[in-house]
Amino acid sequence: MVGYDRDESHQFVTRDYQIAGAASGSLTRLLLQPLDVLKIRFQLQLEPIRSSPSSKYQSIRQALSTIYQEEGVRGLWKGHIPAQGLSVVFGVIQFACFEHLTASLHPYLPSTLTLGDYKPVYHFGCGGVSGCVATLACQPLDVLRTRLISQGEPKVYLNLTHAVQCMYKEAGLRTFYKGLIPTLIQVFPNTSFQFAFYTFFKRTWSSRIGVETSSKATFQKLICGCLSGICAKTIVYPLDLAKKRMEVQGFESARRRFGRVQSYENFVVCLRTMYREEGWSSLYKGLRPSIYKAAFATALSFTFYESMLALIKEHRQSR
Q1: Which own/partner contact pairs does 102-107 have at CB distance under 8 Å and 24+ positions apart?
Q2: pLDDT tens digits for 129-157?
């Protein structure tokens, strides 16, 4: 169950949504961190992602091999601690906020919008707002994990504590909120489309195929989550790419061993410069690993979330 439901929502309290959101974020991050590392490395590389003497990373297989050879297995989970914190906090706030919004606004809006055929539109708006609220709380962790992942060897940041100290010396608290505006611009449509597509695909599946067993229900969640992740990420990907490049501004010294570095004055200049100097295809640089990650992450996130709520409900009923 994602969003307000007249038959089930009364069985849960805010803490239940927070626990389910935390578990969903933590488990998803643990499994998919290597894809996140790969995605960020691709996004920050100015050279084309293809076989070329100037390109450090040329394909998914070659990039994974290079990271493993140069940094070991731990390199594939680089930045995992702040990323884990990011996922847990984001999951807690996003899902709790979403459930609160869908339940609180329900009495004031037409039932056709909140429960009927236009429910995906309702979830689009609530999903975008909940994503932005979660982002405001999590941006420092996102900037921190991006920098830890993007640095090569020798490391500029020796550990998490050293990274926080160095970043604070750089520009105070502002360093931890670099790229906030492009992040919010990217997060609103991304989370909106995720919730909207997930609701749409689940409703379509139930009306066309039906759900009879728990195993079929789990399969339904995975497939619908996967499709919603792919659709949402493809639509907003250029914004995600620009966000990542803005987050590492002022961190060029640690990026030089990966190839050319570029400074951007703002979000719009970043997109314009990428298009002019790297071509239109640069706006989708790193799309493949990002799509893989988005598909798996969204599928696992919604599945873990709903499964955890089902366990909470079952445990409460058995007492």
Answers
A1: 102/3, 102/4, 102/126, 103/4, 103/9, 106/4
A2: 999 999 999 888 888 877 877 776 677 78
